[in-house]
Amino acid sequence: MHQRLLVTFSTDGIETSEQARKYAFNELSHDTSFISDSDSPNRFGGGIADWFKIGGRWSGELTEIKTGQPIKKRDTSVLQRFPRGFPDDAMIVDLVLYDKLLKKYEGTWHSGDKYDFCDLDREDVNEDFVGKKWIVIVDYHY
């Protein structure tokens, strides 16, 4: 089963979409509460995902939300070789993205057992995210 995950984190020291996508990929790759580690002695526990990609089947969704226009379906097969997604799979949070994607998580840094949102800095969602946080869209399999 595939799930969409929205990940946010501070813009401090991360200036480009490429850097943001790489940061999110690396953080999630090394988080055993997210991705199962085949070398882990915990054979029946661990991460919620067995693999993931930045963007994936939700690639382009941030652009669609910002513009209100559907975008052409992408050939995401290239993500097999480049699992860090397309440039618009990471954006700095603006009012549109905040209102349409993050507002419902106000007061918490993760979505609990829904596993569809997490702030990597563990900061509760609030309007201060606008202009100060990256949002990255992730496709994971569980």
Gyration radius from CA atoms, angstroms: 15 Å
Element order, helices and strands? EHEHEHEE
Low-confidence stretches: none
What percentage of the residues does DSSP assign to strands (E)?
Answer: 15-25%
What is the helix tally? 3
Task: Give the count of structural domains.
Answer: 1
Mean pLDDT: 89
**Percent helix range:** 10-25%
**Structural class by SSE content:** alpha+beta
Question: Can you characterise this structure?
Answer:
With 142 residues, the protein is of the alpha+beta class. The protein has one domain. Helices cover 20% and strands 20% of the residues. Strands 1, 2, 3, 4 and 5 form a five-stranded mixed sheet that branches. The mean pLDDT is 89.
Structural key phrases:
142 residues, alpha+beta, 5-stranded mixed sheet
